[in-house]
User: Which sequence fits this backbone?
């Protein structure tokens, strides 16, 4: 079966997962910026992989644009955020708010932890975190929200590979 892992990655975590998954499946990983209608038409299966930023998934516009081609071929959705992998309810909620129109089942949605590194943030992300840091005073969640984290573990794609191969 031919397949595409289409990813939207802001700082690299989602791209790492997408490329590792594509390699395991012997498929192609491609940035959402480079997807064409022809590529979607010519493939049998699609996995979408997207970052989460302020509750929004970066791949939503592409999924809406190609909804008719993607919905019948989408085998899985990978949601990558700045929280631990074990918080699957968070990832399911994000997926449903952003991509409910694809009609995916819960078992097709996989949440994976990403990175949050303040030093690497650019533009609006950097600005927003600086504003939050100044605005929020002594909140119990502030320390957690402002800390740098790295939850990326490529081995976490193994259940996705197993799911896709069954």
Assistant:
């Amino acid at each position: 079966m031919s397949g595409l892992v289409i990813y939207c990655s802001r700082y690299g975590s989602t791209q790492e997962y997408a490329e590792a998954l594509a390699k395991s499946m012997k498929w192609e990983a491609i940035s959402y910026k480079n997807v064409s209608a022809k590529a979607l038409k010519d493939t049998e299966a699609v996995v979408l992989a997207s970052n989460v930023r302020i509750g929004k998934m970066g791949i939503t516009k592409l999924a809406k644009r190609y909804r008719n081609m993607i919905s019948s071929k989408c085998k899985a959705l990978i949601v990558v955020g700045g929280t631990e992998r074990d918080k699957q309810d968070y990832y399911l909620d994000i997926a449903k708010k952003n991509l409910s129109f694809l009609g995916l089942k819960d078992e097709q949605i996989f949440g994976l932890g990403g990175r949050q590194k303040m030093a690497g943030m650019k533009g609006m992300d950097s600005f927003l975190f600086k504003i939050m840091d100044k605005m929020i005073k002594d909140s119990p969640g502030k320390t957690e929200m402002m800390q740098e984290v790295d939850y990326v573990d490529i081995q976490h794609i193994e259940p996705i590979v197993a799911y896709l191969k069954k």
Notes: The helical segments are 13-25, 37-42, 60-65, 67-71, 88-99, 123-135, 140-146, 158-165.
